[in-house]
Amino acid sequence: MRYSAGLINTVREVPSEAEVISHQLMLRAGMIKKLAAGVYSFLPLGYRVIRKIEEIIRKEMDQAGAQEVFLPVLCPAELWQDSGRWSVYGPELMRCKDRHNREFCLGPTHEEVITDLVRREVKSYRQLPLNLYQIQTKFRDEIRPRFGLMRGREFIMKDAYSFDCDEAGADVSYQRMKETYQNIFRKCGLKFTMVEADTGAIGGNFSHEFMVLADSGEDLVVSCQKCSYGSNIERAECLPSKEKALPDAPLKPVEAVLTPKYTAVDEVADFLKVKKDEGVKTLIMKADEQEVVVLMRGDHELNEVKLKNLLNAVDIVMADEATIETITGGSVGFSGPVGLERVKIVADYSVQNLFNFVTGANKKDTHLVNVNWGRDCPVPQFADLRLVTETDRCPRCQDKLTITRGIEVGHIFKLGTKYSKALKAEYLDQKGDEKTIIMGCYGIGVGRTMAASIEQNHDKDGIIWPMPIAPYQVLVLPTDVTDKNIKDTAHDVYKQLLACGIETIIDDRDERPGVKFKDADLLGFPLRITIGSRSLKQGVIEIRIRKTGENLQVPKDDYKNRVIKLIQELQPQE
RNA sequence: CGGGGCGUAGCGCAGCCUGGUAGCGCACCGGUUUUGGGAACCGGGAGUCGGAGGUUCAAAUCCUCUCGCCCCGACCA
């Protein structure tokens, strides 16, 4: 590729729309361009990266025995009504109507479509197991598209679906995808970690996420320093807190204390001279329009996903002021469990062992001290409802936990029969009995993987592409194309490398060297060969490694071998 | 959807408060000199000032409405 013939426009200044580094660099490198919020065009260099990631995915998926298909983006509403998700998916589903007023949606994921296909095609156990995948544009009308390719409303996703006769087979399929995903991300040159995850709107029994660790990540990843335990914080289990021995002395009588204007746990604890973990905070939530009171220890945070799963709710939000006042009869900031009737109360395990604790009085500017379960308020339902913190211990091995930010680039689910049952995807087994197919589904965000790679591989000068997904492996850079000797040598090197099957681009623009060096760094090609008067005089070829900044001077007759070797060395190690 | 911010040339911004010729830097086009880490000078093209309505002799500027975009929360590959 000749640079001068390419559509490559780099920009010096950071566009104001970009917050995270991958977004900034992709815009500055002219790899993507925004058309609308969360909707991006890929320009030639950017699209080359996408295609490289896609090819790695295809190769690994095919090797795992999966077959590629291509499903429609436009999906009829009926299928979604059958699965029940037409109403559940909410405004995130891009809906539209055709000229006959029939309803459709733009596929945000394809369980319905693929299950429909399979139920029509598969009749016998002889046709199973099956793993079908596609790489395609998905649509989700996200409330807030963010961070460029990281969270778009239109995005490229690889989605795969497995179909098995029984649980054992489904486990094998799941396991195979788990390994395949690790291969894919490793071959893309990413550092990642696999964690347990919540199943969310897709549903199913259990799932794993593949996380690229990066500060800009939207997820929090909990991992054990000792064993292999890793989990999305949404799912991370909390070990029950150590039991506090009940006091020998009889429980103290409840007392109301004036705490004017103090609503925050910190303030109340300070004011009453107690520790934060000696108080119970009371959250009034709405779970699908049903009010529920949640009790947490003062120093803990609610994990909304756990609450959602406990209540089997679709949507959880904080109740508004009016609702809180109706339920508690008091003002916001002074809620407590005492005297609450006719409302569901759930509490985190950590408050189970508290006694003589502090809580709101459901009365303005008032808190209660020495509250005790049973005596002063009903004993609520206890459950694991809180967010893990770094002071918690690993639920598997009791060692220390760390919490880091991560970008979810892949997610695999064991679905079970959620969709096959709803859509009646069945087969006949050996005995001729009708059985429901067991499913799994497996997603990879292709654009997000590209963004995550940049988050992980960049420096102050720009992108540093891992070799396997770089738009070009080598950039040949003549410092001055008006010098015939330099120009001819550069073109010769360029042709030689192409002849070796190396993906090469030559910066044949009539620009000053500084401009070309800056662009080379920004665009992030792994290897750069500089042809200038300096190296010509010395009779050497100069190879620069983007990642390390190392400059190699190699003999003219050996440079091809060196380039080939360097390309190999820069491949991810097995 | 709630909270905050921003819409002026392809990009980054000034001008708005106090109404009166639409500006700067980068990028782009032509020219001269330059050429190993974002060159200098000369000349040039490019703008419905997000949109609609209003106030006014006069609106980028004041008022009302509206649309878009970005950031913080709920969603997720």
In short:
By secondary structure, this protein is α+β, with helices and mostly antiparallel strands.
Helix-strand layout with pairing:
Elements: H1 21-28, E1 32-36, E2 39-42, H2 44-63, E3 67-68, E4 74-76, H3 77-83, H4 85-88, E5 94-97, E6 103-106, H5 111-121, E7 130-139, E8 154-164, H6 167-187, E9 192-197, E10 206-213, E11 219-224, E12 230-232, E13 255-258, H7 265-272, E14 280-287, E15 290-297, H8 304-311, E16 316-318, H9 321-328, E17 344-348, E18 357-360, E19 366-371, E20 381-383, E21 401-416, H10 418-422, E22 426-428, E23 434-436, E24 438-445, H11 446-456, E25 458-459, E26 462-463, E27 474-478, H12 484-499, E28 504-506, H13 513-523, E29 527-531, H14 533-538, E30 540-545, E31 551-555, H15 559-569
Helix pairs in contact: 1-11, 2-6, 2-11
This protein binds one RNA strand of 77 nucleotides through strand 8, strand 16, strand 21, strand 24 and helix 11.
Q: Overview of this structure, please?
A:
The structure is a single chain. The protein has 574 residues and is an alpha+beta fold. The chain has three domains: 10-237 and 403-455, 2-Layer Sandwich (BirA Bifunctional Protein, domain 2), CATH 3.30.930; 255-383, YbaK protein; 472-569, 3-Layer(aba) Sandwich (Rossmann fold), CATH 3.40.50.800. It is built from 15 helices and 31 strands. The strands form eight sheets. Strands 3, 7, 8, 9, 10, 11, 12, 21 and 24 form a nine-stranded mixed β-sheet that branches. A five-stranded mixed β-sheet has the order 16-14-15-17-20. α12 links the parallel β27 (474-478) and β28. α1 crosses α11 (446-456) and α2 packs across α11 (446-456). The longest helix has 21 residues, at 167-187. The structure holds one RNA strand of 77 nucleotides.
